[in-house]
Amino acid sequence: MHEKTRRVTITVPGDLLDAANRAVDEGVATSVSSYFAAAAREHGANETMRQMLDDWASELGPIPTEVAAAVDEQWRQAGVDPSAAAPAKKVPAQKTRKARPRRVAVSQASAQEVRDPRRQRQAG
């Protein structure tokens, strides 16, 4: 289901308009409007992904240096220059979080074991 479209006037640099017109001429886009709509959708998706990654980084902390180096090496082996990618946002260092207690469904009989794992139920 598509949302009803509305007309809007925007001002864009000439090179972007040229790119949109080329995309239409080459059959990549059905119209200049669809070209810019697709670009806006992609930008929104990228922002959503960026926010999700920022949330993960804030929650889990920065990527370990050795992991980042291994990923960069895999990109290089694939023929991609990892330094050409957009730089990641710096995430302030976080204190190590305590692990959250796991929530589990337990019966009344085993509830004490969950509260105090040092106590074991006696075999009957």
Describe, in plain words, how this protein is organized in 3D:
The protein is mainly α and 124 residues long. It has a domain at 7-83. It is 48% helix and 0% strand. The protein is elongated. It starts with 13 loop residues before the first helix and ends in a 9-residue tail after the last helix.
Largest sheet: none
SSE-based structural type: mainly alpha
Order of helices and strands: HHHH
Shape descriptor reads elongated
Count of helical stretches = 4
- Report the mean per-residue pLDDT as an integer: 76
Q: Give Rg in angstroms.
A: 26 Å
What is the β-strand count? 0
Strand content: under 5%
How much helical structure, as a percent, in the residues?
Answer: 40-55%
Low-confidence stretches: 90-94, 104-114, 117-124
Termini, distance in Å? 62 Å
